[in-house]
Design a protein that fits this description.
Helices cover 43% and strands 12% of the residues. The chain contains ten helices and eight strands. By secondary structure, it is of the alpha/beta class. The protein has one domain: TIM Barrel (Alpha-Beta Barrel). It has a six-stranded parallel beta sheet, covered by helices on one side. A two-stranded parallel sheet has the order 7-8. α1 crosses α2 and α2 runs parallel beside α3.
């Protein structure tokens, strides 16, 4: 999954695009480099981010989604927790709703997803982007999140969203300490037990600063290392900024593994 942030304040690449055409050109480049999904976001969810007004988010994402659907067969995902943004992007041709709140911030989001044939990415977050990094706590982060997803899958199924449409995302960096993140990244098999595909969004995130001691612009090599560790655990979807490097690393890794058999 290639990341396309249309925000002025995202933690890694905010303010990158000044027009719809520039954003579309970048997304098409990610598709050419091997992205299986293009994830379009119009609201920063970094810790402490200021919420974006509905009209602002709509004006950022809908034209880009519409144009991408016209120009590529690569599925488009809309990264939003607002039901109206999801609705308009689905009408524009998006195939997936990627909601950091697990369809909880907007009470109308389950209905919008139910009435569509879209895929649904259900992420775990403790708190909100404004509060999530204020002393996050778990009894056992692995057990707590597995129990959370077990409940949430049942709730969404009861709301009319078949679990076959759902992908789970443990939410690296969303209400977790660096230690919580590392525990989650090293125990992906626990989430496979839920019976649904697992997505991990680890690219350039803050836990890598603790591991590497490097700022955001110097974390791509560390991101690749984590991507390979996740691939070794059977992670289904890797949400990354540098698609080409990730594809190359996975191809080289798989080629070496195949040659050893």
């Amino acid at each position: 999954m290639g990341i396309v942030n249309l925000t002025p304040d995202s933690f890694s690449d905010g303010g990158q695009f000044d027009s719809v055409s520039a954003a579309v050109e970048y997304a098409l480049k990610l598709a050419e480099e091997g992205a299986d999904i293009l994830d379009i976001g119009g609201e920063s969810t970094r810790p402490g981010a200021t919420p974006v007004a509905l009209d602002d988010e709509l004006s950022r994402v809908v034209p880009v989604v519409r144009e991408l659907v016209r120009q590529t067969r690569t599925p488009v995902s809309i990264d939003t927790s607002k039901a109206e943004v999801a609705r308009q992007c689905l009408e524009a041709g998006a195939a997936i709703v990627n909601d950091i709140s697990g369809l909880t911030f907007d009470a109308d989001m389950p209905r919008i997803c139910r009435e569509s044939a879209c895929g649904v990415i259900v992420m775990h977050i403790q708190g909100t982007p404004q509060t999530m990094q204020v002393a996050p706590h778990y009894n056992d982060v692995i057990v707590d999140l597995c129990q959370h997803f077990t409940r949430r899958l049942s709730e969404l199924e009861a709301a009319g969203i078949a679990r076959e449409r759902i992908v789970v995302d443990p939410g690296i960096g969303f209400g977790k300490t660096a230690e919580h993140n590392l525990q989650l990244l090293s125990h992906i098999e626990n989430f496979h037990a839920l019976g649904r595909p697992v997505l991990i969004g680890h690219s350039r995130k803050r836990f890598l600063k603790k591991v590497l001691g490097r700022d955001i612009e110097e974390r791509d090599a560390g991101t690749l290392g984590v991507s390979l560790a996740l691939a070794a655990q059977g992670t289904d979807v890797l949400r990354v900024h540098d698609v080409r490097a990730t594809r190359d690393a996975l191809l080289a890794w798989n080629t070496v593994l195949a040659a050893s058999r």
